[in-house]
Amino acid sequence: MTELQEQKNNLLNELDGLFAKIKEEKRAFNDEESTRYDEIEKELAKLDKTMKAEERSRSFEKEEGTNMEEKRSAEDIFSDFIKEETRAAGEMTKTANGNIIPTELSNDIIKRVSELSGIFAQVRRIDSTGKYQQIIEKNKVTAGWTDEMAQVTKTSGDYDIIEIDHYKLAGLTTISLEVLNQANFNVSGEVVGQLSESFAAKVEEAIIKGDGVKKPTGLVTSGVTVPLASKTAVTGDELIDIYHSIKAPYVPNASWLMSRDTLAKVRKLRDNDGQYLFQADLTKEFAGYILGKPVVVSEFMDNLGGTGVAPIMFGDFNKAYIVNANPQQTIQILNEVYATQGAKGVLGFLFLDGKPVNAECYAVAKTPAV
């Protein structure tokens, strides 16, 4: 950085000399001076860009080093707590539900749940330690044209308030004492990984088909209903009907949601030109695209073949559904329960709730009821 600054200073001094000369002689740049001026400007721009990049790189390195240090500290505290080492006792906050997991690891769990659950990544998430209230509009205010000086008809909107609290989701994993006492075993990473997988499956199932009884209310309970003609198959025309069943403002960010079994049937559909309706996703972010919109796959979506089931959804799930997740997760260590097995139980709790908040945003395709 010092050498770069020195080069910059030399160029600026040379530039000052050029300006001093033409000012003294009261004239404009000649061809040689004009060319040199352009060269100096380009060199100065390159130096500035290089110096900014180096400064930014150092900032990233410092930030990354700080984050890694904090994360290692959180992992050490968490690992020591699981091993019941006394040095971690004062660093874990005790609550009625157990001990609060360090924030770094709580964020890791939520992040991994999002990575493991396609639909959890799609919906809107609120992180709060208490109840969340969402105002929804039942009937919109109606505008209308009117004559000059004429009476304007009064209309008013109708609103509801949806309360999204927290339900307790528990996940249990066990670790043998032999593995736990190995110096090179990443206790924290193993526990976070197993709890994340356990939470992801239950959260995804509840977001899709939860009944709202001590768990989130699922997407299937709301939305624009689109009837399918058959219990065992879906046609290309029906996919188009589903696509156009939601209002235009929600289409740009819309996606499909279906099971692997249903997707396998959809992948075989072709248009009138013999082209498959399903297009592979080269980025691997989604399963692929149908009618230009990404496909999210879930094992908890119904398969085609059932009576009155919902095998396909389509819409803007970020505007359709809200999850309220408590960032303060807790954990309990179960020693006596698994003592005869030579293991410890690690019981984690995730507190969250979720509800559909806009039925216009998405469609739910359903098979015939009989």
Quick structural gist:
With 370 residues, this protein is an alpha+beta fold. The chain is built from 9 helices and 16 strands.
What does this structure look like?
It is a single chain. By secondary structure, the chain is an alpha+beta fold. It has two domains: 2-79, no CATH class; 93-138 and 156-370, phage-related protein like fold. It has nine helices and 16 strands. Strands 1, 2, 3, 6, 13, 14 and 15 form a seven-stranded mixed beta sheet that branches. Strands 7-16-12-8-11-10-9 form a seven-stranded mixed beta sheet. Strand 10 (288-290) and strand 11 (293-297) form a beta hairpin. The radius of gyration is 30 Å and the shape is extended. The termini are far apart. The model has no long low-confidence stretch (mean pLDDT 86).
Per-chain topology:
Blueprint: H1 2-25, H2 31-82, E1 94-95, E2 98-100, H3 103-116, H4 118-122, E3 124-127, E4 132-139, E5 158-164, E6 167-176, H5 177-180, H6 187-209, E7 224-227, H7 236-243, E8 255-258, H8 260-266, E9 278-280, E10 288-290, E11 293-297, E12 312-315, H9 317-320, E13 321-325, E14 330-334, E15 343-356, E16 362-366
Parallel strand pairs: 3-13, 7-16, 8-11
Antiparallel strand pairs: 1-2, 2-14, 4-5, 6-15, 8-12, 9-10, 10-11, 12-16, 13-15, 14-15
